[in-house]
Amino acid sequence: HFRPLRGRVPGARGGRKRTAGRAGAMEEAPAHNGSSSATGTGAASASSSASSSRPPATPEGMALAYGSLVLMALLPIFFGALRSVSCAKSKNSSEMPETITSRDAARFPIVASCTLLGLYLFFKIFSQEYINLLLSMYFFVLGILALSHTISPMMNRFFPANFPTKQYQLLFTQGSGESKEEIVNYEFDTKDLVCLALSSIVGVWYLLRKHWIANNLFGLAFSLNGVELLHLNNVSTGCILLGGLFIYDVFWVFGTNVMVTVAKSFEAPIKLVFPQDLLEKGLDADNFAMLGLGDIVIPGIFIALLLRFDISLKKNTHTYFYTSFVAYIFGLGLTIFIMHIFKHAQPALLYLVPACIGFPLLVALAKGEVTEMFSYESSAEILPHTPRLTHFPSVSGSPASLADSMQQKLSCPRRRRQQSPSAM
């Protein structure tokens, strides 16, 4: 299974045709046992020279494949956004989200471009088989952990009340004495171990067979975890991130052949696939349509941010969340339509970014809430019942002097509130 993907492009007329594979791309491509080539911010699919014996996909098969891809893309966005709300309010340090700042968003396309170029050079210099073997082992471990975290809340409902539960803690520290620093501090129980064992079965299945169902289970888990645990701190950061990746996607797809070369050589569960010949061949189908995970996670974390903004308004309407959700469906449908019109794979972010930003912005303009939208800070929702220390005193000496200084600092907001109520 560790070899370049070869096959006939569905929809191509006669002869042989090569399609581009890229980050954040949506494309038709066949694969052997679900083994496909993918890479980048979002998965990209690729196919090269093909045998003319493969029959083209039927209209029913294509409709089933793309309908299933759209549905699979919507599930992690919807449930990941809901879980991001509880994640933002979690008091468990192991479940705290990673907040993306405007600086992170601005650097992300540059980092992604360097990574893509590095992979291109690696595949040019070293053997593809060994690189893909290493990447498969890497995503094997990540996939098991992501899938275990995804199914854990659902599996807890199936455990009987008398199920024996024991608590465990994985602690890894650096240094000793007062200079000891925690590197890993993960708490889990017996139920988590059961989920980990079930996820390991899927991992072994994927590692041995590269089956498309196992690939999709890992892909859905990666997507849901990404939407849940990656938080944008405000709408401006989301616009910077989506705008930067919009340019990144278009440049690397239409400007160079780097993305094509890497996508044809890269094998990992960072895409969702669905066979277009499922009705004819069943689970052994090998003519796949594909959607990159970047086309799910990147718009998904922006949609999750708008859901948290809806909740902060306390109107119980979720207008911006549903608007952006419908915008995502529109953008993905437009991607599929354009792809079939021009018979060429399309960068989905080219259509998703304007839709996911433009639709909610128009709603905000109509409701007169643009200022509230851009002034909302998602980080303020984290641990809402815990006092947040915004000024760190520089104090040296004994712990008693530090405590006295902290009390003085905490007493200051009361006087400031009386002098300037609007400042808070």
TrEMBL record:
Q: Which Pfam families match?
A: Peptidase_A22B
Transmembrane domains' residue ranges: 63-85, 105-123, 130-151, 229-254, 288-307, 319-342, 348-366
User: Which is an annotated GO molecular function term of this record?
Assistant: aspartic endopeptidase activity, intramembrane cleaving
Region annotation (Disordered) maps to 1-56
Annotated coiled-coil positions are: none
Can you say where in the cell this protein is located? Endoplasmic reticulum membrane; Membrane
Q: Which InterPro entries match?
A: Peptidase_A22B_SPP, Preselin/SPP, Presenilin_C
Q: Does Membrane count among this protein's keywords?
A: yes
Gene3D superfamilies for the chain? Presenilin
Question: Can you supply one Gene Ontology CC term for this chain's record?
Answer: lumenal side of endoplasmic reticulum membrane
What family, per the record? Belongs to the peptidase A22B family.
Supply the name of the protein.
HM13 protein
Q: Which species?
A: Ceyx cyanopectus (Indigo-banded kingfisher)
